[in-house]
Every structure is written in structure tokens, then in C-alpha cells.
Design brief:
The protein is built from five helices and six strands, in the order αββααααββββ. It is of the alpha+beta class. A six-stranded antiparallel beta sheet has the order 1-2-4-5-6-3. Strand 4 and strand 5 form a beta hairpin. It starts with a helix and ends in an 8-residue tail after the last strand. 22% of the residues are buried.
Length: 169
């Protein structure tokens, strides 16, 4: 069973181009340096396999994520992607542009459900940058959207960045 699970994970990783990223910047003349107003994005579609892997690691076995009938009785149209799994987009976006970033805090408000197979776009927007001892304390507005403009998660994050120079994605 474990061998089959590992093969399924590998197949999923190889065959599922679930990530796409983008960088949108303000009218700054130096787009490779983070400034207030810069928006970083990452789109991802969550699968059954993602939920199984998340459940195994987090020990979250909520039947809303595994049983369609249970989810329907609870008022949803189908099984839900765990909200905390969706929120993992934020640290991924920040760390992929700023290797060595240290996540300090995150607030989350779950607005709407996310269902398996929906493409979700995570966005982080720099709202406050402070230099501190040759590092940078950055506050980000965070949100996840489905269908390009329907907010499913809203919040704020703070991270310590080793540099404001962004790695190209």
C-alpha cells in the first residue's frame, strides 16, 4: 500500500502542471526589487492526492474533505479543500521569490469554500517595508481568489526578507 501511494505521489507530481506564477509590479523603474504595491501571484489547482497528502501530514481527517455525502448534508456542493492547505500558497509565493525568508505571522479569514479541481490564485501584495539590521520586515496583504475575482481567503502576512531583490520565476 505504501509503495502504491508513493507511485501515485510521483505520478501526480510529474503529470500535473498545477502551478503557474506571475509577478505584477507597480510603475516602478526597478521591477526586480520589491516595493510597496508590488503583487506576486501563484495559481494552483488542488487534487484528491493533495488532500490525502495534507491529511497524512496534518492528521486532519475531517469528513468534509473525504466524503461527498457528508459535505452535501453539511450544506456544501461537494468535498472541500482544507482552508489551511489553500493558505499554503502564501508562504510558497514569498519563499519562491525570496529564498531564506522567515515567516513571522499570518492572519486568515476564510470567506468561501474551495472545491477539489478549482484553480485558486494566491496573491501577496507588499504593503509596508521596513529595513532592520540589513534585513527587511515586510507586511503583505494576502488573498486567494477563484474564478479570477471571487475572494475565498483574505488576510495579512509578515515576513523577514534577507533582500528586496526578487528571484525570477
Amino acid at each position: 500500500m505504501n509503495c502504491l501511494r508513493e507511485l501515485l505521489k510521483i505520478k501526480h507530481l510529474v503529470s500535473n502542471p498545477i502551478y503557474s506564477s506571475a509577478f505584477l509590479h507597480s510603475s516602478s523603474s526597478t521591477p526586480n526589487v520589491l516595493k510597496n504595491g508590488h503583487i506576486l501571484k501563484l495559481a494552483r489547482t488542488f487534487s484528491d492526492s493533495d488532500i490525502a497528502d495534507y491529511s497524512e501530514l496534518s492528521l486532519d481527517s475531517n469528513p468534509l474533505h473525504f466524503d461527498s455525502e457528508y459535505a452535501k448534508v453539511a450544506g456544501f456542493s461537494d468535498r472541500l479543500v482544507p482552508g489551511m492547505l489553500v493558505a499554503t500558497l502564501f508562504p510558497r509565493i514569498i519563499a519562491s521569490h525570496f529564498p531564506g525568508a522567515i515567516y513571522v505571522s499570518q492572519s486568515l479569514q476564510f470567506k468561501l469554500p474551495v472545491y477539489i479541481g478549482e484553480e485558486i490564485t494566491g496573491e501577496v501584495e507588499a504593503t509596508n517595508i521596513k529595513e532592520m539590521r540589513k534585513k527587511y520586515l515586510v507586511k503583505f496583504s494576502t488573498k486567494c481568489l477563484k474564478d479570477s475575482n471571487i475572494m475565498v481567503i483574505d488576510g495579512e502576512a509578515t515576513a523577514i526578507l534577507p533582500t528586496l531583490a526578487m528571484e525570477q520565476q
